[in-house]
Amino acid sequence: MKVTEQDVKYAADLANLELSAEEQTRMRRDLDAILGYIDRLSELDTANVPRMAQVSHMNASSQSHTGDADGSREDIHEGLRKSLPHSVALQNAPDSDGIFFKVPKVIER
Amino acid sequence: MVTTPETSVAARARYEAVIGLEVHVQLLTATKIFCSCSTRFGNPPNTNVCPVCLGLPGALPVLNRKAVEFAALAAMALNCQVNATSIFARKNYFYPDLPKGYQISQYDKPLAEHGAIEIPVQGGAKKIGITRVHLEEDAGKSLHEGFADSVDTTAIDLNRSGVALIEIVSEPDIASPEEAYEYLIRLKEIILYTGVSDCNMEEGSLRCDANVSVRARGQREFGTKTEVKNVNSFRFIREALEYEIERQKGVLESGGQITQETRLYNSNEGKTYNMRSKEQAHDYRYFPEPDLLPLIIDEKRQAEIRRSLPELPEARRKRMVADYGITEYDAQVLTFSKALADQFEAAAKAAKNPKRVANLVQSELMGRLKAKGCEIEQSPISMKGVALSADLVESGVISGKMLKDLYDLSFAREKDFPDVYEEEGRPEQSRDTSALEQTIDEILAAHPRQVEQFRAGKTAVIGFFVGQVMRASKRQANPQLVNELLTRKLGG
After folding, report:
1. What is the ipTM, given to two decimal places?
2. How many domains does chain B have?
3. Based on the domain organization, do B178 and B318 belong to the same domain?
4. Residue A37, domain CATH
5. Do B317 and B291 sit in the same domain of this protein?
6. What is the pTM of this model?
7. How many angstroms away from the CA of B282 is the closest CA of chain A?
8. Which end of chain A is more exposed for a tag (fewer CB within 10 A), N or C?
9. pLDDT single digits (tens) B202-253
10. Exposed / middle / buried, residue B346 (Cβ in 10 Å: 0-12, 13-18, 19+)
11. Given B36, B280, B296, which is nearest A80 (Cβ)?
12. Considering only CB atoms, which chain B residues are within 8 Å of A106?
């Protein structure tokens, strides 16, 4: 396996996840399988293709006759999606006082 | 204020500081950068939020065109080259006020690069490079204190989440806390002139982090830097840097090493402290934002944006010196804000003597505003009022003393100069010279010795007589007229 136990611990740490030993083993196996699958892309010969991170703009520019090629919008409220009602905004909060989202203390003082 | 371990002054002088600043500026768009929620400051917590800025699964960002224009305009004002193509990137980190778990920012292809601004330094100007200006979204606000359960919980308000920001990163060209202060003053002034932000530090629309290191004078390599955060005024940044530079010198002098870390400034104590959060190397795992297209600002669009670039403060000062024959210092005072400069120019253009308008603003208006504790925008006397008063003095209708009295009345009554001038019945200084001549005759008769001195060629003694006459007239007389009459009588 290419993914090491160290890699899994590091990624879990960045995501603030606590993994049991069993979960770590499973994650290592799953990540390895995923990366292995993605690795198949490197079988392609890309010698004559410029480096790119996205392809969607190629599609967008071919549709530029729609007048909105860059996908941006105007800085207006009218006709755009409204903000959520306060109670709806908070309904998925793990903890709330009815006004704020509440989370475990994040700064040690 | 700065207290560090005892080290000789000479030892400390062997070091020099290297400072780079990162300034975040909120853009004055009506809606957020990637959703149509309002950006209004002070709305009830968690009411300007939607699936996009709450980071709910499946929500997609749509770019606000105005944010792009504002960012490009600011970048142009900072003499940056705007990139025709820039890329949004995800900056991944874990913090509760960042609900998506990543901030949409820009990384290896920022909106603009290679800028610079000038700051005044002793004996001239210094260029401070601007590495880059990029667009990003703001995070929410964490409130760590002020609640009954603040000991173990933090309250989160996501109204700010997704507000459009630009980050302006300077080159490490700044060599002292004073230069850092000047840089921030100039930067804020330029941004305010462009109108893309209100730069209100109390409301957090301008925030600054500082990277600072010290190295032996003449050394090429940089020392290990620390990042100073949590500083909410330019004065505090200067203080925090002063403290931090001395602290680092102290560590090095006593044989220690600087740890690369983030430090918070405590303005009450005037000290910086290591942020005691779990110390892990930052690993933001930047990657291109797949939900947004590359940002294209082609030449045509850049030209359109550039057209709305106003005359910037430095250029304006130079022109004002030339146009109105005022000093550099006058120009500095008068361009304190764009509003003030605009009002002044309108008034000065309409007045007989622009220089007198400038002088009156400085000598009579600014002092009174300061004493009253208000900004030029709240001045009871408008620039038009100043212009009228300047014309009245210029044409000899009122004296300088009368002008001062009328200004006092304006401030007392909170009315503009023209109104007070009318209310006082359009006062005029005495043009009847007979009373004045009589006073002068009396004074000359009372001081024969000085009269003799004058006639013997010691003409400077005229100043003595002017003073006597002014005092006798309770400073109501026109000094120019007094001078004329005295010269005639003494010469005769």
Report:
1. 0.82
2. 3
3. no
4. 1.10.20
5. no
6. 0.78
7. 9
8. C
9. 888 999 999 999 998 888 899 989 999 878 889 999 999 999 999 999 999 8
10. middle
11. B36
12. 95-96, 142, 144, 154
